Amino acid sequence: MLTRATIDRVVAAALEEDAPWGDLTSEYLIPENAVARADLSARESGAFSGGEVFAAAFRLTDPRVEVQLVVEDGEWFEPGAALAVVSGPARSVLTAERIGLNFVQRMSGIATLTGRYVAEVAHTRARIADTRKTTPGLRAFERHAVVNGGGHNHRFSLSDAVMAKDNHLAVLAQKHADVTAALKAAISRLPHTTHVEVEVDRLDQIEPVLAAGIGTIMLDNFSLDDLRRGVEVVAGRAIVEASGGVDLGTVRAIAETGVDVISVGALTHSARALDLGLDVRIEVGGA
Q: Which is catalytic among the residues 166, 201, 220, 275?
């Protein structure tokens, strides 16, 4: 998902946005022959994510800048840890600094938050998954960070799977369509490799949906008692996903109802950027 081409495309756009006509401060204040060495340091504990994205900010600014990653994506660290070392022309290091930090702080924040959710459900069979509630244009970056935190990815886009949600079912209801028949008709036209998921918000919707032969059923905003009952009704005939009302205070109890997947929009839409800093040392070269 996070390919070199994707990284370069997104990072290049960010650099263009940040310095469309160059970095005036560095160009007019910093000597041309100045060399910088900088340490990417952790101000707090967390899980690292976005190493190659961080490095790309400097590489695309100036190929002469070297970035040595000290930790790997998915590795946990403590405050004070050195995460990467950057060295090269000072002007270029200073120009790329903010963009590199923005990405690695954001991605490491997502990985860290995901890791906390994963730890809460580690004693159950439930897996923590992200949603499509991602920052437009940054989905590949944010989904990569979720995996680095020990989570799993949901469908990447609308083109990857069929997922009939409440609004889809509402349209069918307005047309007085039979849900089971409508789902069967859709499945009959789909490639055999396409996964089908349906969201329900009431227990009485489960059987008509399962009768269509779907792969995953999402129990949306169910109480804990209804989640347990829903798992019993499904009885292994489909993957059971829980969604809605999920936070660090509720996720453990939700997992203990026996669901297979818990999707958490907060992993990407509410993660706080991790406090990482770039400590720069400048040296002026020879004459």
A: 220
